[in-house]
């Protein structure tokens, strides 16, 4: 209690009051509320906690301060019916975001998927982004601008892949996505810089597709959530204190349920940790979410049982290369995906582009660091780009970076929902490269599960954890 009081300002000394500790704390809360009511629209707070340190308790602890974590935090406060009735804490271990998947993303958004769930996640997210100034603007701050480039996605298919692309197109149109098919001749007329050799058909997004600045979206969610009363702390979650309850099933077997009571947050550059008492935890730790799941014993049970089913998420390193080509595609350049998997998009107006390719299983790089392999571009990326865009035969690589996918090794799709044996442990991870573009809709879905007890807007039950135990894959055919 003393430590909590020392974190406050404008607090009278104990010699000035004769209240019990609970009464004293209630008085502080009333004082804090009065000051907020007196200053509508202001984020000034005369009674605040030391920035960066976790509180002693919260209703919800979100592990991971990337765009998915902050989206969840925003939507939880958005659904709050009475101000300050829900205390939410976002824990981020890397305050610089130097290794965060969000900041290192290419920033694309598309509806050209094969699964209706993925199509609607991105459609709803695109709708949110179209109205981002209304959704995420903060009083007395500059208007939100994520620098969206609505240039569309362009997928190419050879004879071998044409049937799948056309099937995806019909699914996308049925679910409301604005997409068109192009013959090779139509493709060359629309984009004369493309070599159509070996192209049987192409699919082009007409609305709600393109790319934006990932860092801008992250900060927009973060600033809005903080203005709504979200608590933010820097540190690494190192443990989940829980209780265990054994229940006898109908067949006479024993089922073990767990419930999290405290999250241990270790301070940066320190051996000390702060236990945060909480009601539930959301695992939005991205590429490191399996490590968080292991803290509660997920996957540690007998093999072949639900308790022994692991969270199949691991970090996968992906390279993004920046190259220059003055004679390359101009302002009409979409986010281009070749039938071999190589991709690129325009970066600004100075003849610069970013691009890459997802490696095969045999070529997967070591994820222990974020070093870039420039030979990978020369051997695996550039030949495809130079063949498809003749102007790229003279391109010059300027720089590169590497980032992490929270790669779902089971079916490369999101994991959204609660764990069956830990009823206050939620997942929002495993997006395998789709997390940024789907973050607005995913945040709302998790908030609905927590506040309403079920999905309200989109039915995402196909993405639950139970599918790993039942071996039910939810396969997405259109993976980049």
TrEMBL record:
Q: Which GO terms describe its biological process?
A: mitochondrial respiratory chain complex I assembly
Keywords for this protein: Electron transport, FAD, Flavoprotein, Membrane, Mitochondrion, Mitochondrion inner membrane, Oxidoreductase, Respiratory chain, Transmembrane, Transmembrane helix, Transport
* An annotated GO cellular component: mitochondrial inner membrane
The protein's predominant localisation is mitochondrion
A GO molecular-function term, please? oxidoreductase activity
Q: What membrane topology is given? A: Single-pass membrane protein
State a single Pfam family of this protein: DAO
The reply on keyword Electron transport is: yes
Q: What is this protein called?
A: FAD-dependent oxidoreductase domain-containing protein 1
Q: Which organism is it from?
A: Callorhinchus milii (Ghost shark)
């Amino acid at each position: 209690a003393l430590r909590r009081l020392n974190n406050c300002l404008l607090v009278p000394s104990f010699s000035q009051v004769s209240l019990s500790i609970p009464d004293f704390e209630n008085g502080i809360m009333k004082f804090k509320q009065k000051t907020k009511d007196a200053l509508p629209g202001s984020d000034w707070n005369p009674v605040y906690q030391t920035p960066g340190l976790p509180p002693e308790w919260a209703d919800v602890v979100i592990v991971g301060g990337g765009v998915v974590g902050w989206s969840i935090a925003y939507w939880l406060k958005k659904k709050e019916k009475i101000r300050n009735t829900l205390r939410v804490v976002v824990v981020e271990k890397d305050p610089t975001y130097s290794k965060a998947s969000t900041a290192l993303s290419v920033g694309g958004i598309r509806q050209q998927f094969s699964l209706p769930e993925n199509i609607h996640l991105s459609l709803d997210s695109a709708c949110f982004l179209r109205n981002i100034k209304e959704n995420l603007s903060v009083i007395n701050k500059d208007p939100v601008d994520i620098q969206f480039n609505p240039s569309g996605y362009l997928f190419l298919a050879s004879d071998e892949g044409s049937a799948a692309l056309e099937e995806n197109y019909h699914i996308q149109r049925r679910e409301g996505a604005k997409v068109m098919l192009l013959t090779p001749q139509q493709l060359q007329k629309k984009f004369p810089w493309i070599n159509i050799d070996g192209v049987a058909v192409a699919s082009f997004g007409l609305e709600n597709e393109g790319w934006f600045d990932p860092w801008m979206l992250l900060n927009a969610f973060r600033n809005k959530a903080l203005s709504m009363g979200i608590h933010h702390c820097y540190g690494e979650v190192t443990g989940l204190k829980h209780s265990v309850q054994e229940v006898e099933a109908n067949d006479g077997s024993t089922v073990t349920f767990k419930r999290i009571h405290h999250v241990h947050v270790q301070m940066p550059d320190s051996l000390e940790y702060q236990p945060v008492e909480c009601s539930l935890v959301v695992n939005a730790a991205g590429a490191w979410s399996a490590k968080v799941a292991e803290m509660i014993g997920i996957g540690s049970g007998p093999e072949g049982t639900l308790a022994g089913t692991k969270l199949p998420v691991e970090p996968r390193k992906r390279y993004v290369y920046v190259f220059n080509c003055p004679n390359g595609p101009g302002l009409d350049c979409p986010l281009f995906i070749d039938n071999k998997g190589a991709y690129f998009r325009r970066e600004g107006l100075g003849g610069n582009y970013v691009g890459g390719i997802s490696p095969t299983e045999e070529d997967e790089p070591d994820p222990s660091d974020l070093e870039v392999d420039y030979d990978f571009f020369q051997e695996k990326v550039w030949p495809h780009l130079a063949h498809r865009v003749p102007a790229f035969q003279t391109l010059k690589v300027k720089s590169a970076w590497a980032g992490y996918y929270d790669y779902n090794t089971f079916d490369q799709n999101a994991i959204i929902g609660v764990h069956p044996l830990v009823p206050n442990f939620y997942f929002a991870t495993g997006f395998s490269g789709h997390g940024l573009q789907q973050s607005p809709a995913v945040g709302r879905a998790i908030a609905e599960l927590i506040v309403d007890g079920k999905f309200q807007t989109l039915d995402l039950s196909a993405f639950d954890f139970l599918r790993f135990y039942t071996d039910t894959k939810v396969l997405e055919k259109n993976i980049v």
